[in-house]
Amino acid sequence: SQQGEEDPQALSIQEGENATMNCSYKTSINNLQWYRQNSGRGLVHLILIRSNEREKHSGRLRVTLDTSKKSSSLLITASRAADTASYFCAMDTGTASKLTFGTGTRLQVTL
Amino acid sequence: NAGVTQTPKFRVLKTGQSMTLLCAQDMNHEYMYWYRQDPGMGLRLIHYSVGEGTTAKGEVPDGYNVSRLKKQNFLLGLESAAPSQTSVYFCASSHLGPTHEQFFGPGTRLTVL
Hints:
Helix content of chain B: under 10%
Structural class of chain A: mainly beta
Order of helices and strands of chain A: EEEEEEEEEEE
Shape of chain A: globular
Oligomer: heterodimer
Number of strands of chain A: 11
Strand content of chain A: over 45%
Strand content of chain B: over 45%
Structural class of chain B: mainly beta
Helix content of chain A: under 10%
Shape of chain B: globular
Distance between the termini of chain B: 36 Å
Radius of gyration of chain B: 13 Å
Distance between the termini of chain A: 37 Å
Largest sheet of chain B: 7 strands, mixed
Largest sheet of chain A: 6 strands, mixed
Radius of gyration of chain A: 13 Å
Order of helices and strands of chain B: EEEEEEEEEEE
């Protein structure tokens, strides 16, 4: 089964609103990464948060990590139509040299 | 700097045919990965490589083979394609493995009839 589960599966908001998506995982991690995928394109890295960090910011993005709850959240503030995409979390569990991806959240931002 | 490129972009195969997908990166990355993406499944790792001449199995390796003869290239082969291999395939590379970000190619959409 997937290491990462994302919630919600789909989210529709209006431009200017904030969007929050959550990622839960099952085992301990070294770091957790968030990626964006525009329709029909490859994934693009957004932000990486290490297991000893609780919060990280990058522009309009804010990521939190709660290792006790095995969960992370991605907040996009003041969303724009261009933020419409799927968002994936990916975990480095220290098992082999790879990331394990979550199932993704589809975000739709309407004008 | 092209980043990660994939060839071809689209392909239609008949059951039993073979093909090779090519991934190339120009960032001198050690690690390379092949994923498949199916609706509702996220990305699943097929095979990966931690350096030239090395390969390792991921979550879903059956029916696929890979080779990394040159550091910049990672080939994914389907020896006898099956309809279950209809998917979008993504290649990615990373400088130092899962402690660093992965850079993705644009994907190859494969249909097996």
